[in-house]
Amino acid sequence: MTKELSNEEKKQKIVNNIRKNYRQVEMSIVNQLFMKHDLHGTTIGSERESIWGQLFEMIVPKKFVIEPSVFIIDSEGRVSHEVDFAIMDEMYTPYIFRYGKVKFVPIEAVAAVVECKSQSVNEAQVKRWAKSMNQLRTSGESVARMANMIASGATPTQQSTRPIRILCALQDTCSDGLKKHFDFTLLASYKKENQSDGRIEIHLNPQKAQSSLKDWYKELNFHNYKIKQGEFNSIKEIDKLAGIFLTEYAVQDKGSENISLLTFNFQLNQLLMLINNPILFPHRAYAKLFNYPGEEGNNGEIRSSRID
Length: 308
Prior knowledge:
Layout: H1 7-33, H2 48-59, E1 65-73, E2 83-88, E3 97-99, E4 102-106, E5 110-116, H3 123-134, E6 143-145, E7 150-152, E8 164-170, E9 184-191, E10 194-204, H4 213-221, H5 260-275, H6 283-290
Parallel strand pairs: 1-4, 5-8, 8-9
Antiparallel strand pairs: 1-2, 2-5, 3-4, 6-7, 9-10
């Protein structure tokens, strides 16, 4: 006769199974990343995005869309280098352009960007990519109905957002200097003699390792924004974030072994919750961008193309 488990024993069994499954998913992703072509013996670089994409599909909430191969644009006409994955909220934000595989996404919609590398990483190229991302600016020229008011412009708690930046690469292709361009770096490592030892190491940007959630909130929601005196500290409950750090979200197994993907799950989703919703979309600012020079503002007259 099988002994019935106590509630505590059931809880521990479920928790242990979840830990084990995260570890199995981690090994599966690493094994795929290091898989070799039988004939050529080269890493399957062309599939790296879809392999890493499995990870993000597993942990990112369904309110977000994971869109591959996009260019990000702002209302001033600045365009990023191509992004392997954009994690975006498309509920209220239109695509600027989407036809087939060509996609231009407004910066206001993007919560995170992911770069995937499987061969040697060109540091100069990554630096240019990061610069193209950093130059993008959200616009505060928005109008939207709220529950008890009409909001015009950015909200006090979210003036200018920037995406969370993530690099996915193989451990032996990534130098320490690259990590400073990303908030998270995920590095896959693999021992040929022991396929069960595949690991994904999660590295926080070394310059942000000691950052509190208050620091992260400020950086993600007030990006390159000049905060007025008293404006930031007047946000209700903000000081509670000063004593909370992402290192507290690390999950360890027996023997203090880090469960990397579960840790990353909690850390990334906590930062997504600090952004919470995309900045209100500035339709008027983008309309100005695409107006033909000299045609801005036509006194209310709407002129359309006509086919006779």
